Amino acid sequence: MTRNRVLIVVQNLPVPFDRRVWLEATTLAKHGYRVSVICPKMRGFNRGRETIEDIDVYRYPLPIDAQGKLGFVLEFLWCFLATSLLSLKVALAGRGFDVLHVCNPPETYWPLAWFWRVFGKRFIFDHHDLSPEMFAVKFERPATREGGGALFKALLFLERMTFNAAQVVITTNESHKRIAVERGGKRPEDVFIVRSGPDLSRFEVYEPDPKWRQGKPFLIAYLGEICKQDGVDHLVRAVKILRDELKRSDVHCIFMGGGPHQKAIADYAVEIGVQELCTFTGRVSDEDLCRVLSSADIGIDPDPKNEWSNQSTMNKVIEYMFFGLPVLSYDLHETRVSAGEAGMFVTANDEHALAQGVVDLLEDPARRKRLGAAGYARVREVLAWNYSVPPLLAAYRAALGDRSAASPATDAASAEVEP
C-alpha cells in the first residue's frame, strides 16, 4: 500500500495564512499526498473544520493570549493538548497519516512524535526558526547557555529532543542546517534545505500608483509581521533622521503587516513626531501588497543584527526582489545570501547608516535599477518556490525509506554567495 498520508502541525500561524506551510501542503497534495493540517484559530481563520484545495484543515481555539514567559508556557501546553487530541481524530476518523510533519516554533511536540512513532509513523521536523535565539532577543538575554538563563536552556533542551525524535529535518537555509547538524546531532544527509521562496503565480507586478506615496516623490516599504524582534522601531527612527538630519522631506514610508507590536510601533511614530511620514496599513490583501510593492522605490529590512537575525532567512527580502526593488538592510549573513547582488548592506544596528542608505539609493537611480534587476532575475532563476519543490519531495522520500534519489539538493542560493 502506498504510504502517502501526511499530517502537518503548525502552531504559530493558521493555514492558509502561513504561506510557507500552505505551499508545502499544496505542493504535497499536487504530488499525490493526502494532506491534513492542524493549526490554531486566528487571523480571521476561525472555522474548526474545512477542506481547502483538497487539504483537510483542523483548527482549535486559542483562548490564551500569551503575555510574558508564563503566558507562553500555558499557551504551549494548551496547544499541545489540543493538537494531540486532533491528531487522534485525524488518525481514527479522518484521512489518517503516515508522516507527522511538525513545524516550529515551538519545539514541544516531540512527545507526540515518539507516541506516533510507536505506531509506525515517520516524523519530519520542519525547522522554521531558531527558538532559543528568538527568546534571547525578545527577552534581552545573551544567546548563550551560560547567560541565557533557565528558559533559554529549556528551549535548547526542547530543540535537542525534537531533533532527536526526527528521522528527517527540513530547514530553511545553510545556517539552520549547520545548527541541526552541530547542535542537533543530525547527519547532514538527513537535513534538507527547503527555502521559503514565493509562488510566482501568486504575485503580479502592476503599474506604479502615486496614491501610496501620499504626495511624496519617493516611497520606501516595509512588509511583514511587526514583532518586537523585527526592529521596525529602527526604521521609524531612520525616517526621523531622514527628515530632521538629512533634510529629506520627499520620502514616505509604508508599513504593511499586523503583529503583536504593530500598535506600539504606530504609537511610537506619533511619539517621535513622524506619523505624517508613515502609513501603517495592518494586514493587506495580496492585491494591495502587490500594488504597494509595485509602487515602491526601496524595500527595507530593518532587522537588527543578533544571533537570531543573522542566521535567519527573511521572506520579506525575497518578496521585495520579486517586484524588482533594491533591498536595503543591515549587514546580516543570511540576508546577503538571499539578496545577493540585489542588496545594499549598511553598518548593523546603526539607524543613521540605514537612513543614509536610503538617501544614497534615492540619489543613484542607476544603482537602484541595477540592484532591482538583479533581484528580479534572482527570484525567478534561483529563489522561487518551484526550486524548493525537489528538496521537499526528496525529504519525504527519505522519511518514507526511499534513499534512491533523496540526497539533500545543493542550496544554490547559498552556493552563489558563500565560498
TrEMBL record:
CDD domains assigned: GT4_WbuB-like
Any Pfam family the entry gives: Glyco_trans_4_4
Residue ranges occupied by any Glycosyltransferase subfamily 4-like N-terminal domain in the UniProt entry: 21-188
Protein name: Glycosyltransferase family 4 protein
